[in-house]
Design goal:
This protein has 275 residues and is of the alpha+beta class. It has two domains: 2-30 and 65-83 and 165-268, no CATH class; 94-162, Roll (Ubiquitin-like (UB roll)), CATH 3.10.20.30. It has helices at 18-21, 43-61, 67-95, 119-126, 128-133, 164-186, 218-230, 242-248, 253-274; strands spanning 2-8, 26-29, 99-103, 109-113, 136-139, 142-144, 154-159, 189-190, 195-197, 201-207. Belongs to the class-II aminoacyl-tRNA synthetase family.
Length: 275
C-alpha cells in the first residue's frame, strides 16, 4: 500500500530538534476504501466480517521486513555516495584556493577561498551563536546549503528558523529523517520526497507492499527518528549525473521513475531554450 506520512505544525519561533517535531506524525492512505456494500453484511455476518478484518489488519501490521535486502541496498547507496563525494572533494581541492570576497547584507565584506570556504565558515567567523542557529544561505540570490563551497565573489544572506527559507529547510531536513525512519523500520520503498508544505510541515510518500499502517506504528517511527537525530548524522550534498542517480536507486522503481521523469523534463526545457 502507498501511504503519505505527514507532520502538521503550527508556526514556531525557535529552533526545535527534529526528534521533537516528529512526535505528532499523522498519515493518510492513498488507497481508496471499498465501496459501500462490497464487504460485510447484516447482523452476525457483519460482526464476523469486522472480526476478520481486524485479524487481517493485525497480521498485515506485523509484516516482516527483508533485513538482508535492506542492508545490502543501504550499504550500496552509502558506498556510491562516498565514492562520488570523495571524487568531487578532490576536484574542488585541486582547483580551489583563490581569494574571493563575500558581501553581507549590511555591506560588510568577508574574505573567503574559492571552492573551499562555505557559508558556515562565514557564519562561524561572525559568531558562534549565529553558526549554531543558521539553517540555510542565499548566495547571489540562490538558496545554498550551509556546507556547500562558495564558487566566486558573491553576496551572502543567512537564514534562521524564523524565516520562510529557514523553516522550509528545516522541514526538508526533517522529511529526510522521516524517510530514513520509515525505510529502516519497515523496509519500505520511498517514493516522492522529501517534501514540505509551507506553514504546515513535511511528508514523505512510501510504498509498503502488503503492510497496513495504523496509529500503533507511530511509536516505532518516533523511536527511529529519535535514534537518527541522536546520532547527529550530517546532511551532506553531492551532485550526481542521471546515470549515477539511477545506479544509486536501482532497487527502487519509484525513485527510478522520478529520476527519469525529472531528467526528461529538464531535457525538454533545454531544447525549448535552444529553439
Amino acid at each position: 500500500m502507498l501511504y503519505r506520512f505527514s507532520r502538521s505544525v503550527s508556526e514556531r519561533r525557535s529552533f526545535v530538534p527534529s526528534s521533537i517535531l516528529l512526535q505528532s506524525l499523522s498519515f493518510s492512505s492513498f488507497i481508496s476504501a471499498p465501496a459501500m456494500g462490497e464487504s460485510g453484511g447484516a447482523g452476525s455476518d457483519a460482526s464476523t466480517a469486522k472480526g476478520k478484518t481486524k485479524v487481517a489488519a493485525a497480521a498485515k501490521s506485523k509484516s516482516v521486513k527483508d533485513e538482508a535486502y535492506l542492508q545490502a541496498v543501504i550499504q550500496k547507496r552509502i558506498g556510491l555516495f562516498e565514492s562520488i563525494q570523495s571524487a568531487q572533494l578532490a576536484k574542488r581541492q585541486s582547483i580551489g584556493g583563490d581569494p574571493i570576497k563575500v558581501t553581507l547584507p549590511d555591506g560588510t565584506v568577508k574574505e573567503g577561498k574559492k571552492w573551499i570556504s562555505s557559508p558556515m565558515d562565514i557564519a562561524k567567523e561572525i559568531s558562534s551563536g549565529l553558526a549554531a542557529s543558521v539553517l540555510i544561505a542565499q548566495v547571489n540570490g540562490i538558496l545554498w546549503d550551509m556546507s556547500r563551497p562558495l564558487e566566486e565573489d558573491c553576496t551572502l544572506k543567512l537564514f534562521k528558523f524564523d524565516s520562510n527559507e529557514g523553516r522550509d529547510t528545516f522541514w526538508h531536513s526533517s522529511a529526510h529523517i522521516l524517510g530514513q525512519s520509515l525505510e529502516m523500520e519497515y523496509g519500505c520503498k520511498l517514493c516522492i520526497g522529501p517534501c514540505t508544505t509551507r506553514g504546515e510541515g513535511f511528508y514523505y510518500d512510501a510504498f509498503y507492499s502488503d503492510l497496513t499502517l495504523n496509529e500503533e506504528h507511530f511509536e516505532q517511527i518516533q523511536s527511529q527518528a529519535a535514534k537518527a537525530a541522536s546520532e547527529k548524522q550530517p546532511f551532506e550534498r553531492i551532485e550526481v549525473s542521471r546515470d549515477q542517480a539511477l545506479e544509486m536507486f536501482s532497487d527502487n522503481k519509484f525513485k527510478v521513475e522520478i529520476i527519469n521523469d525529472f531528467t526528461n523534463k529538464k531535457r525538454k526545457r533545454e531544447r525549448g531554450l535552444q529553439s
